[in-house]
Write a structure and sequence with these properties.
With about 325 residues, this protein is an alpha+beta fold. It is built from six helices and 18 strands.
Length: about 325
């Protein structure tokens, strides 16, 4: 049986008002023998009501959620809240400060580390605190992502179909639609270790999505997250009026591995399709070029399935197995 978390905090989750503080994770290094990694956390509470848990910085090089939650923490007023809001704007703080997908301390991807380990690596200890302390408090979990440094995405909200009840799936779909993104994507079953999969095991409706990419800050993505979190708070009845009419969203799904295109060889990838393009099965997706051997013929790459391009590799060079494209198809909303 897992033991207690080593993370400590002065924040009182039951206190009314706005608290902006830290989760302290002991980390002894040469520079600081009794040092701690101080992970920012805000809690805003007013009376009774549901709890929304907003998280960004699961991957450190995904910035739209970090920007939006940073601004929200300063702007939100407890008097406008009925319930509680938990905000973790840079969950994997070492990765967020380094601008990397994985932690520079233990080289772990936090979105493959759940439910974590109280005695594990730094990343595993952060994941364990989220899983054992924050998820049990939540009535909704929103994990704001983007494509990071290596991928570009059309902005979309979405959810997964982890091993959950029909009611939880319905609530997760409703939450994803409530974000108000132009696309709402059912991205299928996820592997254990992913944050939203772990939230589902706690019975918490979960919403995610991708709101930019390329290692930059998308203005449109930030605006979508900012409005999306307000929409979710209204949907839960925590803050504000429910939006009278949400923007129309296109329901889509990624039903299998055929929706992904991977590099067959290491080389320079020349893409043949843009974000938003509609493609057909067997259509050329691009080709791998070999700048160190221009006499070698390019290796063609094809789409296995048809659909809409919602993601494309940002970096020009790729190694064998790197994702080049991610497709989605129209979905009727039925499970």
């Amino acid at each position: 049986m897992a033991g207690p978390t080593r993370i400590f905090t002065d924040i009182d989750y039951e206190r009314n008002g706005k608290q902006i503080g830290y989760l302290g994770l002991p980390h002894s290094v040469t520079r600081s023998a009794y040092g701690n990694i101080m992970i920012p956390l805000a809690v805003v509470k007013n009376g009774s009501g549901p709890t929304a848990f907003f998280m960004a910085g699961n991957h450190g090089d995904e910035y739209e959620g970090q920007v939006a939650l940073n601004k929200f923490i300063r702007a939100v007023e407890p008097a406008r809240v009925q319930g509680r809001i938990l905000v973790l704007p840079a969950a994997n703080l070492p990765a967020a400060l380094a601008g990397t997908r994985v932690s520079p301390i233990d080289d772990r991807n936090m979105n493959r580390a759940f439910p974590g380990d109280p005695d594990g690596t730094i990343t595993e200890q952060i994941a364990y605190y989220i899983d054992s302390v924050l998820f049990p408090l939540a009535d909704l979990f929103a994990d704001w992502h983007s494509g990071g440094s290596s991928l570009d995405f059309i902005p979309w909200s979405g959810f997964n179909t982890a091993d959950t009840s029909p009611e939880l799936l319905r609530r997760s779909l409703e939450a994803a639609i409530a974000v108000g993104a132009p696309l709402t994507v059912n991205f299928g079953e996820l592997e254990p270790g992913v944050a939203s999969f772990a939230a589902a095991l706690h019975g918490v409706p979960k919403v995610g999505g991708e709101f930019g990419g390329g290692g930059s800050v998308s203005l449109a993505g930030v605006r979508l997250v900012e409005q999306g979190l307000l929409n979710l708070l209204a949907w839960l009845g925590i803050m504000g009026e429910k939006p009278p009419r949400l923007p129309e969203t296109r329901l889509m799904a990624t039903p299998g591995l055929d929706c992904f295109v991977h590099a067959p060889e290491p080389g320079l990838f020349e893409p043949f399709a843009e974000l938003g393009d509609t493609v057909e099965p067997g259509q050329p997706a691009g080709q791998m070029l070999f700048v160190d051997n221009p006499a070698r013929e390019p290796v063609p790459v094809h789409f296995k399935a048809g659909g809409t391009v919602i993601c494309r590799r940002h970096f020009g060079r790729a190694e064998r197995g790197d994702c080049l494209y991610h497709l989605a198809i129209d979905w009727d909303g039925k499970f």
